[in-house]
């Protein structure tokens, strides 16, 4: 199973809201804040749940201004600095 990393930008005040919503979807991914001031975040998911996470992100784009900047594929857990 491969891990996918979605490198994104979120309107900074919305980060906690997005995190709470993601938690309610249990198991589609986790969020890590890279820079709270600039709204840089990464979402980690697996190839099995990537479609659900991408749908989640796209559905929140208008509400929270999530911009998917890059999607990376990697083997195993490797944190993005």
What features would you describe in this structure?
By secondary structure, the chain is an alpha+beta fold. The chain has one domain: Alpha-Beta Plaits. It is built from 2 helices and 4 strands, in the order E-H-E-E-H-E. The protein has helices spanning 15-24, 50-64; strands at 3-9, 30-35, 40-46, 67-74. A 4-stranded antiparallel beta sheet has the order 2-3-1-4, with helices on one face. It starts with a strand and ends in a 7-residue tail after the last strand. It holds the Pfam family DUF4911.
Q: Helix/strand-derived class?
A: alpha+beta
Radius of gyration, in Å, reads 12 Å
How many separate helices? 2
What portion of residues belong to β-strands? 25-35%
Number of domains: 1
Indicate the overall shape.
globular
Overall pLDDT metric: 90
Fraction of residues in H or I helices: 25-40%
Largest sheet: 4 strands, antiparallel
| CATH class category | Alpha Beta
In N-to-C order, the SSE pattern is: EHEEHE
Low-confidence stretches: none
- Total DSSP E strands: 4
If strands are numbered along the chain, what order do they take across the biggest sheet? 2-3-1-4
CATH architecture: 2-Layer Sandwich
Oligomer: single chain
